[in-house]
Structures are given as structure tokens and as C-alpha cells.
Amino acid sequence: xxxxxxxxxxxxxxxxxxxSVTEVEDERSIVLKLKVAPEDMGKVIxxxxxxxxxxxxxxxxxxxxxxxxxxxxIVQ
Length: 76
Fold this sequence. Notes:
The protein is α+β, with helices and mostly antiparallel strands and 76 residues long. The protein contains three helices and three strands, in the order αββααβ. The radius of gyration is 12 Å and the shape is globular.
């Protein structure tokens, strides 16, 4: 899932070298923390959070085979 999130984010931002994705896993869930450059934050979130919601939907759909809840956090 980490790789999928990186690929999606790299195609949205202008500074793909500043992307970092960290993965925190426990028994029931996986939290993916996406960090981008401050000037690219709007491109990842989108108007009214539509792009962020779409990213979360794609990652959630791709993780159907895992028995864990996937959470995508966009952090500064």
C-alpha cells in the first residue's frame, strides 16, 4: 500500500523528491502518513478535500485482501 500511495502522490505534486510515506502497523490497522512539500499540500488535498478522499478510496479498494483497516493521513 505504501508504494501505491507514493505513486499516486508523485503524479500529483510538482516536487516529487520531497514526498515521504511512513507506515505504522498494529494488530488491526495500518496507518500511512503522507508528507509532501508545503506548496504541494493543496494539490494533494484538492478543493473541499476531493482529491484526498479519492486517494483514500483507491488505497482502501486496493487493500481489500488485507484483513486490516487502512488509514491515510496527510501530514505537514
